[in-house]
């Protein structure tokens, strides 16, 4: 037999809203998402909430529960006192769509802006080889379920809409760190890119992002701080500084990057391209890396799904003639994506197959 518990849930849309009180039955072993589902089945059939897996793996059910960003499907009701009112509000950093559903497009835009993995030009798909230790190092970051709780809690953008353009956020810092640690990534200026284009310098290592990560990724200790250290090492390394004075701008001594390879030379040493010693401004390495990568591609901007006369998302089951909900990329996107919309094009992809 369940017990009655008090809930306060934010109801409203982009034009405003407030907290509404509900008394709802809670049974042993239930999580907050179960209670929201019960409310939808009883007192609040129009309560909007996003979820998919109910297993802590899809990252959809992010919300703020008693002020803390959490996955509602992983928050047990037993963690609250019996007489405690549970307050549920939407993620604060992103625009409200309705009730507990926010528009997290910001994160998809930042994902699109992050340069993709760029394997060396002289390796064909299927020839990539990595040491197990390198696999394990980046494996931690691959656990990310893109729940965006870290993005939501980061004070740089939480109440500062004006910072969003210049700041990609912790989720994408660990993506940059992961690629920076990747021995086969030919784009050697990940940390410089993170600093100059992703707003790494805005982060003052408060570790709030790490605290809320449901995958327990050490975002700051293992991702952000090592990248910041390498940026500083590179900028204040006296040898690099001296080299930049002696050599022309954009070139560094060949102790950190080699230029033994020649474009397209089979078996040429690509160590300049792979180097993680901080050498990122070797012009030839850069040109080689860019050969297979279309960094400045034009990609179609995501289109929002159509809203009804009230400015609300229509109920897909009632109004769409297709089997599934509309694609967040819009209906005019064909798959597979045309090559000009990909941010990695293998150099050999246009060669005729034998
Ligand atoms: S450590 Fe940096 S990225 Fe993480 S929440 Fe703090 S400021 Fe944001
Ligand atoms: S790093 Fe953690 S908190 Fe951030 S999006 Fe990934 S899983 Fe969520
Ligand atoms: S519903 Fe998938 S993580 Fe909560």
Number of domains: 3
Query: What is the β-strand count?
Result: 7
Can you name the CATH architecture of the largest domain? Orthogonal Bundle
* SSE run: EEHEEEEEHHHHHHHHHHHH
Given helix and strand content, the structural type is alpha+beta
Percent of residues in beta strands? 5-15%
Number of helices: 13
Give every kind of bound small molecule, once each: iron/sulfur cluster, FE2/S2 (inorganic) cluster
| Helix coverage percent | 25-40%
Question: What top-tier CATH class of the largest domain fits best?
Answer: Mainly Alpha
Please give the radius of gyration in angstroms: 24 Å
Nearest-integer average pLDDT = 79
| CATH fold title of the largest domain | Fumarate Reductase Iron-sulfur Protein, Chain B, domain 2
Spatial order of strands in the largest sheet: 2-1-5-3-4
Q: What does this entry look like structurally?
A:
With 354 residues, the protein is an alpha+beta fold. It has three domains: 99 residues, Ubiquitin-like (UB roll), CATH 3.10.20; 187 residues, Fumarate Reductase Iron-sulfur Protein, Chain B, domain 2 (Orthogonal Bundle), CATH 1.10.1060.10; 59 residues, no CATH class. Helices cover 30% and strands 11% of the residues. It contains 13 helices and seven strands. A five-stranded mixed sheet has the order 2-1-5-3-4. Strands 6-7 form a two-stranded antiparallel ribbon. The protein starts with a strand and ends in a 35-residue tail after the last helix. About 11% of the residues have low confidence. Bound molecules: iron/sulfur cluster (2 copies) and FE2/S2 (inorganic) cluster (FES). FE2/S2 (inorganic) cluster (FES) binds next to loops.
């Amino acid at each position: 037999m369940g017990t009655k518990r008090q809930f306060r849930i934010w109801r409203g849309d982009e034009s405003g809203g407030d907290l509404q009180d509900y008394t709802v039955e809670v049974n042993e072993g239930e999580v907050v998402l179960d209670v929201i589902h019960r409310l939808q089945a009883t007192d609040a059939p129009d309560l909007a909430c996003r979820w998919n897996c109910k297993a802590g793996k899809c990252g959809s059910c992010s919300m703020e529960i008693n002020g803390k960003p959490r996955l509602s499907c992983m928050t047990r009701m037993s963690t609250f006192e019996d007489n405690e009112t549970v307050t549920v509000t939407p993620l604060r950093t992103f625009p409200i769509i309705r009730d507990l559903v926010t528009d997290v497009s910001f994160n998809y835009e930042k994902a699109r802006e992050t340069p993709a993995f760029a394997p060396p030009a002289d390796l064909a798909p299927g020839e990539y080889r990595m040491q197990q230790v390198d696999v394990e190092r980046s494996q931690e970051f691959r656990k990310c379920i893109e729940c965006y709780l870290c993005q939501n809690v980061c004070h740089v953008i939480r109440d500062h809409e004006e910072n969003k353009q210049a700041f990609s956020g912790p989720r994408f810092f660990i993506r940059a760190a992961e690629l920076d640690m990747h021995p086969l990534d030919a784009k050697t200026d990940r940390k410089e890119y993170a600093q100059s284009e992703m707003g790494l310098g805005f982060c003052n290592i408060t570790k709030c992002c790490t605290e809320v990560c449901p995958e327990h990724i050490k975002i700051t200790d293992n991702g952000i701080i090592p990248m910041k250290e390498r940026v500083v090492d590179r900028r204040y390394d006296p040898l690099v500084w001296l080299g930049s004075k002696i050599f022309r701008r954009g070139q560094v001594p060949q102790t950190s990057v080699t230029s033994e390879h020649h474009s397209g030379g089979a078996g040429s040493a690509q160590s300049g391209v792979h180097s993680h010693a901080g050498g990122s401004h070797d012009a030839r390495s850069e040109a080689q890396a860019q050969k297979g990568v279309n960094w400045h591609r034009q990609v179609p901007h995501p289109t929002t799904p159509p809203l009804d006369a009230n400015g609300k998302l229509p109920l897909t089951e009632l109004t769409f003639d297709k089997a599934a909900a509309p694609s967040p990329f819009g209906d005019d996107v064909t798959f597979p994506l045309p090559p000009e919309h990909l941010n990695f094009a293998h150099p050999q992809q246009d060669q005729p197959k034998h």
